[in-house]
Amino acid sequence: MGGSLVPAIAIGFSALQKRIDSQSRLTTTHQQLLSEIHTHLDSLSSTHSLTTSLRLLRAQQTHLSLLSRLTSLISKVSQLSPNRNASLKREEEELRVLLEGLGGEVERVRNRSNELWNGVGGLKLRKQELVEWSIADENGFNQILEVRQFYSL
Question: C-alpha angle 93/99/105, rounded to 5°?
């Protein structure tokens, strides 16, 4: 809409008043359109929320119905099963033992990683605390190294 308006020469106060009046009318028209759009969006939003809430309620009821049907079916099937009193199958038992072992291993790895991170933190603190040493007397240091090498032989 802004592209259809072009600057116009206004000579005198009457031309300026006409320009102000036309811009006021255009502003009023735009405000009415915005009001209509806002009203339409409000109606769409309320319709959407109502239909969505109804669909959600229907889905919850269907879910509960299917859940109760499934649990009753499971109870009937378990009564008909020939090995309903049997404990876990051998493979299931082996898998359970394996998973418990892996759980313990995960816990050990977690503890070890915590120990290592604590060590890293300690090293960082120690590094910050260390003072940088330098050799003040090169000749004296070389003599100390020669004496050390002599006694280490």
Answer: 140
